[in-house]
Amino acid sequence: MTRAVRVHRVGGPEALVYEAVDLGTPGQGEVRIRQHAIGLNFIDVYYRSGLYKTPAAPFIVGNEAAGEVVSVGPGVTNFHPGDRVAYYFDLGGYATDRNIPADKLVKLPDHITYEQGAVLMLKGLTVWYLLHKTFKVEHGHRVLIHAAAGGIGLLACQWAKALGANVIGTVGSKAKADLALANGCDHVILYEEEDFVARVKQISRNELCDVVYDGVGKMTFPGSLSCLRPRGLFVSFGNASGRVPPFPLVELSHHGSLFATRPKLNDYIATRGELLEGADTVFAAVITGSLHVQINHAYALKDAAKAQTDLESRRTTGAIILKP
């Protein structure tokens, strides 16, 4: 029997139940993998709590993981038992084994560990599309990255710096500030002690930022708009503090004809070619040293509730993994 963490009724961390589940053989076009490491993300909390629409209960949370192919279903020719693989796929990740469509898998290069692969498929691909597709960060751009010491934040700061940007990050503590500075931030703002809008204006000498990457949501809005230069881009990609409230579009004109977008990863890897492009770019950035994957916390799969509690309580930095 496979062991998995399931939600029978949405709610708090106590809704996560570690139990045995029956996993059938892989179907047409599917691959069965034995998971070695599972990435933990805020989107897992959104599904568990019911903030995001969920399938019929019970369901298994988790979107990214890495492991080894143990068997393949009919019609699968490009993966074989023993292959090292990783994926980003909607739900089902918090498990020791799972069946998954083969076209959602990518092969891990020899120099990428299972642990790295498990946090690069959602977090790494998210940073890839944010910095290369949603807004193409180039030398001389000034960028603001909220939650700069988080799993996505640390990768975003490193990659933006490698691309030649001037990087400003917001964090919640001195320890997190030190971590962000060590990972590419040129300036760090302690948002609980400082007015981040005023500090951005001071740091930039009122020139403000070309782009704001905001995965925090309600707490940092509308301040993020005030940090943008005319015709700058507000990128809202997460809701760690709650959803951004509805606002009139004319608000964008009041801040200088701003652009705003609410992207999601699925729309940037909608085709197999896009998935492979993103994964290849992310893996290459790790192998060449542009990205260092900071895994600061590892929990046993059965302790997923504690892991999510720590994430929600802001007690974590960098990436978090679960070990089956």
Automatic annotation (TrEMBL):
GO cellular component, one term: cytosol
EC numbers, comma separated: 1.6.5.5
Domain Enoyl reductase (ER) as annotated: residue spans: 11-322
Top-level taxonomic group: Bacteria
Assigned keywords, A-Z: NADP, Oxidoreductase
Classification via Gene3D superfamilies: Medium-chain alcohol dehydrogenases, catalytic domain, NAD(P)-binding Rossmann-like Domain
Pfam families reported in the protein's UniProt record: ADH_N, ADH_zinc_N
Gene Ontology MF, one: quinone reductase (NADPH) activity
NCBIfam families in alphabetical order: PRK10754.1 (NF008024)
Protein name, per record: Zinc-containing alcohol dehydrogenase superfamily
Native species: Nitrobacter winogradskyi (strain ATCC 25391 / DSM 10237 / CIP 104748 / NCIMB 11846 / Nb-255)
